[in-house]
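Dear H.,

Thanks for agreeing to be a second pair of eyes. The structure we're designing against is below in token form, covering all 374 positions.
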């Protein structure tokens, strides 16, 4: 096993004036499952390919354990990679696919058979070793690709969106299997996905990238409870956090008739930078329904109710033209999302009033987007 270190690692593609990955500083502990997540084009796959040796590092360096592998060939880095497409040889059996890399490396046949059998048992593939890939389901093919990585007994697993080709139900099942398998094997794993739900459910820690820059690193709980900036706040969570720009008025933030109190620490930081507005975020579950007379109440016109059995979500607009134009979900800037009691669902077109729970309000600087102290 080994740790992984990105030490100001930078990748600039030829013909581009902006780095795809810009001075990435990131440490992955020995045995840790770290997820790189972000929107398309954020640099997450490039970071993984730099670690694998498939992309040049234009500045900085990459270490596996104490060894600088920046200029080391991929085959000599002692890593195993699982791709989005399974990349299985269609004419080979499952056993031959899993053991092919060992065969090329000159590993004795008895050891190959032993390692393949062991990996197949872990992945519940023992009954399929003589089948060809075309006779397997998508989930089974992905497990074969995993098995091919496992039999090599590498120091680091690299996974590049391995679940993207699976249907929704199978994705949920397989991500649980991968997370359980990684914890059982204890192999350091760097996992790339654009799906923040995958990141929250699988990773020991999450690293969020955007435009090639590292935005925040932390546990799933830290990322959810204390996003460091507006981007992370709007990206992590499903449904996404509601975000809006409010006007400062004394010790309150106002938008239309709504007046939301701010903490002394947030007010001091805003006054120091001379701000006249503040960005406030609140998650759908961070509100409660109140009467129209409640101080700080937000009036929401119901556009749609999404009923999910144990939960229900209102998708709506803040009442008033100004309000509707300034507050919205990270997924849809034109409407807010509110979680409500599924047994007390409002009608479409009605108006409900909600208040943000004070300890679940997130305040951000309007100029930098950084989190304000509370």
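And this is the sequence the design step returned. I haven't edited it by hand at all.
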């Amino acid at each position: 096993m080994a740790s992984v270190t990105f030490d100001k690692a930078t990748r600039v593609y030829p013909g581009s004036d902006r780095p795809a990955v810009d001075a990435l500083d990131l440490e992955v502990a020995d045995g840790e499952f770290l997820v790189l997540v972000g929107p398309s084009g954020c640099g997450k796959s490039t970071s993984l390919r730099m670690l694998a040796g498939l992309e040049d590092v234009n500045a900085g360096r990459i270490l596996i354990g104490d060894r600088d592998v920046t200029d080391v060939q991929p085959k000599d880095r002692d890593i195993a990679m699982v791709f989005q497409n399974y990349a299985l040889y269609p004419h080979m059996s499952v056993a031959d696919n899993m053991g092919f890399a060992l065969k090329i490396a000159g590993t004795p046949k008895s050891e190959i058979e032993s390692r393949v059998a062991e990996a197949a048992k872990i992945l519940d593939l023992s009954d399929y070793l003589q089948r060809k890939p075309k006779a397997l389901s998508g989930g089974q093919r992905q497990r074969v690709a995993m098995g091919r990585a496992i039999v090599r007994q590498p120091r680091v697993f690299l996974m590049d969106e391995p679940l993207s080709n699976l249907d929704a139900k199978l994705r949920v099942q397989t991500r649980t299997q991968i997370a359980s398998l990684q914890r059982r094997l204890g192999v350091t794993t760097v996992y790339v996905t654009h799906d923040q739900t995958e990141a929250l459910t699988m990773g020991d820690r999450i690293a969020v990238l955007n435009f090639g820059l590292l935005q925040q690193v932390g546990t799933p709980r830290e990322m959810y409870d204390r996003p460091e900036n507006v981007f992370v706040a709007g990206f992590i969570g499903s449904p996404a956090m509601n975000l809006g720009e409010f006007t400062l008025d004394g010790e309150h933030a106002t938008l239309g008739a709504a007046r939301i109190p701010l903490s002394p620490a947030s007010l001091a930081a805003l006054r120091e930078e001379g701000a006249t507005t503040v960005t406030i975020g609140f998650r759908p579950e961070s509100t409660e329904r109140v009467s129209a007379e409640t101080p700080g109440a937000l009036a929401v016109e119901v556009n749609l109710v999404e009923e999910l059995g144990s939960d229900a979500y209102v998708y709506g607009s803040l009442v008033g033209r100004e309000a509707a134009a300034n507050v919205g979900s990270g997924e849809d800037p034109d409407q807010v999302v509110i979680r409500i009691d599924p047994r007390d669902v409002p009608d479409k077109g009605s108006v409900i009033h909600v208040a943000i729970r004070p300890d679940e309000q997130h305040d951000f600087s309007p100029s930098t987007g950084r989190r304000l102290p509370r």
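Two observations from my side: The radius of gyration is 24 Å. The CA atoms of residues 104 and 146 lie 18 Å apart.

Warmly,
E.
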